[in-house]
Amino acid sequence: MSCFRLENVSYRYDKSPVLTGIDLTLEPGEILGLFGHNGAGKTTCIKLILGLMNPNQGSVSVLGGHAGDPQVTQHIGYLPENVMFYPQLTGREILNHFARLKGASLQQVPQLLEQVGLGDAMGARTKTYSKGMRQRLGLAQALLGKPRLLMLDEPTVGLDPVATADLYRLLRELRDGGTGIVLCSHVLPGVEPYIDRAAILTDGALKAAGDLAALRRQANMPVTLSLEPANSISALEHVIDRASSSSGLIIKTDSGRLRVDVQPREKMALLNAVMASGEVADLSIHQPSLEDIYVHFIGSGGLAHRGGSQ
Amino acid sequence: MNSIWTIARKELSDSLRNRWLMAISLVFATLALGIAWFGAAASGQVGYASTPATIASLASLGIFLIPLIALLLAYDAIVGEEEGGTLLLLLTYPLSRSQLLLGKFLGHGLTLALATVIGFGVAGVAIAVLVENVAIASLAAAMLRFIGSTVLLGWGFIALAYVISVRVSEKPIAAGLALAIWFFFVLIFDLMLLGTLVASEGQFSAELLPWLLMLNPTDVYRLLNIVAFGDTAQLSGVLSLGADLPIGATGLWIGLVLWFAIPLAGALLLFRNRRI
Known about the structure:
The complex is a heterodimer. Chain A has helices spanning 42-50, 70-73, 91-102, 108-115, 131-142, 161-176, 188-191, 212-219, 233-243, 267-277, 290-298, and strands spanning 4-13, 16-26, 31-36, 57-62, 65-66, 76-79, 149-153, 180-184, 197-202, 205-210, 223-229, 250-254, 257-262, 280-286. By secondary structure, chain A is an alpha/beta fold. In chain A, strand 9 (197-202) and strand 10 form a beta hairpin. The relative contact order of chain A is 0.14. Chain B is mainly alpha-helical. The longest helix of chain B has 34 residues, at 97-130. The relative contact order of chain B is 0.14. Chains A and B meet through helix 2 and helix 3 of A and helix 1 and helix 5 of B. Chain A: InterPro entries: AAA+_ATPase (IPR003593), ABC_transporter-like_ATP-bd (IPR003439), ABC_transporter-like_CS (IPR017871), ABC_Transporter_VariousFunc (IPR051782), P-loop_NTPase (IPR027417).
């Protein structure tokens, strides 16, 4: 049973389309990164899965049921962007309240608060909490009742690096336990090592979805090699020139090293030739990162038309 | 049902925490005792006047105070959660919009009912104990009727506050509209009715006119507490129209119940169709 399955989903706000023809699924035990510029439709996607609104077209099934059904939402954990709580209540009182609403046991409340590092602050009113502490409380709230689908919108905002690492470790544990996790974030280098698949939205359409290897293939972006010549730069340059018959190869010299952009399918041929020549002392390979892939799919259209509301 | 109670319970504990419950009870008790003790001041003496006069005075003051307190208690029920950022989160829980609003109503309604029972109840007991020669049975009946109708009136204005709270998106606007509702029902309505009476110079259908009083819950409330003593001479101003109303106390009770049931149903409907 999939955690959620969006099929050909479209949603319009008033007359303007927010999402068009989205097909996206999440299986249990998977972490999906959901990326896109401001106003791309990430939050709308999440709201559809949460059952807060219904699509104008297409179908949304969540945990084998209908989005928004109480039996379904009971098994979903959600951390909204900029989570806020009742300022006059303590962290513990708030979590108790939400646990009762979710039908979750109240015994796990202190444990969860310990787990997110609020053990000492659970008796304090949340108006005294810092942004990071509110975020932790939001996380504890999302983890109530052992959710089978967890959706986190910018979970690391306000968290220090140690807390961020703790969070990702926790997400891995949950994933290994079979929870499906959706992660929305703009901190791409941060989430890159932790996601199994990525989905990239622009202007309400799904531009690409798949694991990083598949996205790299789809983007067909060059791999960058950085080579340190063993003898002379020109000799190494000569080897590279000969090895790569096709065009599109760029050679730049910087501080005595050579930088070569090579198409993925030609990478191995070039590497073999260079290694065989004995003209290289050191080399490093730079694969396109998630951020590179993201920029590739989003297009470098600039900020100007990306300012839409979410 | 469980989630309705969870929401209600939070509202109740909030009103204990911020001392609302205590403050309202105190205001009610002070008011009732003050009126009971100085009720006869107009006739030149200090002391308990009579049960009907005391209740009539209480009801006249009640129509200013009860709607105001109810509106203040409830105007931010939904819009406050929205501005606080918790509405969206609440709705992702296994909790329907109707359950959320009904839970709020239960919480606010119980707060007001408790304050009324404690405040006026204490005053009633004090009168029964301290005033000599007061007929306990008729005092108890009048107090029960007064407390019951006060609770219903308060619920009506809580429900009216919800109609605003689910519609607007900013708290100050909700507060302004709540005050406008208070102003309309408590001050404007009777003036308008009086104006219509005078301007129509008797042209207006004499059968229809008394029914117009039913359009204002505060008038229904006052009629209920005065007519019950069978002494229509106490009715002054536009309320004297009520003497011609062909429905008895039961009809007035039904009127008060409708005055909270219909706005509550309206608020539920508006909330359900609202976009989040």
